[in-house]
Amino acid sequence: MYIANLTYLKPLSEVEKYLEEHVAFLDRYYEAGKFICSGRKNPRIGGVILFHAKDEAEMKQIISEDPFHINGIASYEMIEFNPTKCAPNFQCFTEL
């Protein structure tokens, strides 16, 4: 499982220009069962995506398709972790 911690590198006016494309990217990977949840940081300096991928290569491939990455809108801190305990209704996301 991975946490993508995004930090905006550009002003919000630039972020807004690519937001629709970014949301389409998110939707594509929600439909593929890769993204679990996502949202903006408060204050709005970036965002967070929680997702699972089979390995680091798949994670990097997914992020490489994000319009925020392609257009230099955000930097990404990737954190890999292995859940060892979770709420029962979350367990389906911890199994690949």
Overview of the structural elements:
With 96 residues, the chain is of the alpha+beta class. It has three helices and four strands; from the N terminus they run βαββααβ. Strands 2-3-1-4 form a four-stranded antiparallel beta sheet, covered by helices on one side. It starts with a strand and ends in a 16-residue tail after the last strand.
Q: How many H/I helices?
A: 3
Structural class: alpha+beta
How many β-strand stretches? 4
Q: Output the strand order for the largest sheet.
A: 2-3-1-4
Oligomer: single chain
Tell me the strand percentage band: 25-35%
Shape: globular
Distance between the termini: 9 Å
> What string, H for helix and E for strand, traces the elements in order?
EHEEHHE
**Helix residue percentage:** 25-40%
Profile the largest sheet.
Answer: 4 strands, antiparallel
Radius of gyration: 14 Å
Which whole number gives the mean pLDDT?
Answer: 93
Q: Which regions are unreliable across 5 or more consecutive residues at pLDDT < 50? A: none
Condensed summary:
This protein has 96 residues and is of the alpha+beta class. The protein has helices spanning 12-31, 56-64, 67-70; strands at residues 2-8, 35-40, 46-51, 74-80.
